[in-house]
Amino acid sequence: MSLSPGEGARSRSVWWWGRRRAALLDVGLAALAALETAAGGYTLAAGRLHLGTALAVLAAVVGGLAGATLLVRRRWPALPVMVSMVLVPGLFGGVLLEVALYTLAATWIWPSRRLRLVGLSTVVFLETTAMVLFLFLTSDPQPGEQTPPTWVTALVAVLVAAGLTVVPLVTGLYIGARRRLLESLKDRAQGLEAELDLLAERATERARRARLEERTRIAREMHDVVAHRVSLMVVHAGALERIAARDPEKAAQSAKLMADTGRQALNELREILGVLRMNEEPVERVLGLTELPRLVDQSKAAGMRVTLTVSGDRTPYRGDAEQTAYRVVQEGLTNAHKHAGGARVSVLLAYVPNGVRVAVVNDRPGAGEQVGLPSGGNGLVGMEERVRALGGSFSAGPERDGGFRVEATLPSRLAARADRLA
């Protein structure tokens, strides 16, 4: 299993160092500072204070330990600063002082710890200025050397102290701010990457749903075409089988109707399958309410006793609305062919104030021979889904007299009136 960059850095960490390179850097700085403070402690004890060899060695050891505090500068950045404050009066520990002040400014977040940072750095600056000024004022001038004015000595002391304290502080503040800016930009980039991944997942999910909806739509269209046309063909084939011997003329008429119905089914299937092969947006032939009389006539030709009743003022509707209403009637007639052979069937088309209503109602099935066509039970479910998707209402169920009703109402907002374009 692969590790993320953060996990890899933690696995290579040594104690409180995030990387081995940082540990090696701190060890090198601590060694350099330890050598410098050890030499300064020995010189102070043996050269200026004349304390003897034993105490001088002890001072060197203490100085070396003081310089070694740079090892913990990343964990406790204030500790090396406070240790350097102890060494400043001895006029040694410059490396420790500068590195400690830089670390303090770079690691302490300015807004939240500014009082401690300002307090420590001010004390170190004043202490360093005082000790440099003391060194200048107590040094013995060479014979014939002109002593500069006191204000010049004070100015030089301030400049030297600023070089020892202010410069590392400002550098540390800049590096710390830059580091935090890069971290915030990295976090923001990771956040944006996560958002892009989420958007990509959502886009993939939307595409999957769109493909699923398109497959469902095509499956419904194919069901509508195949179920209705094949039902008519089976009915005609049954009639042809019964009358072929005794009424050749009527048998020929039934055969012609079967051929016409088959060609219509093939044409509609070809249009549906053509949609799958086209890269551009297809232009499909919309089956509307004006074609209901032809649909009813096809059922009449198959021997069904069916009537069409139209009421209300004709109002054109959107293509998807008219095709849905057409498919509802088609499914109702298909069910009547399958389950109500010989029964009277009424097709109702009513333009009402709140929309358009279509219904297919058949009486109780007669005692004659039933066609016995197979049924998957998905036709009415698909019709209801279509109607509900357009905001309409759908109902299908048995009547009190033993018949069956399929009814759908589509809302008037789907009407394709010219004033809607204004």
From TrEMBL:
Domain Signal transduction histidine kinase subgroup 3 dimerisation and phosphoacceptor, first and last residues per copy: 214-278
| Xref: CDD domains | HATPase_UhpB-NarQ-NarX-like
Single GO molecular function: ATP binding
The alphabetical list of record keywords is: ATP-binding, Coiled coil, Kinase, Membrane, Nucleotide-binding, Phosphoprotein, Transferase, Transmembrane, Transmembrane helix, Two-component regulatory system
Tell me which EC number(s) this protein carries: 2.7.13.3
- Report the transmembrane regions from the record: 22-44, 51-72, 78-105, 117-139, 151-176
Give the UniProt entry's GO cellular component terms. membrane
Q: Which residues form a coiled coil?
A: 175-202
Q: Give the residue range of the signal peptide.
A: none
Q: What is catalysed by this protein?
A: ATP + protein L-histidine = ADP + protein N-phospho-L-histidine
InterPro entries tied to this protein: HATPase_C_sf, Sensor_HK_TwoCompSys, Sig_transdc_His_kin_sub3_dim/P
According to UniProt, the name of this protein is histidine kinase
Q: What is the lineage of its organism?
A: Bacteria, Bacillati, Actinomycetota, Actinomycetes, Kitasatosporales
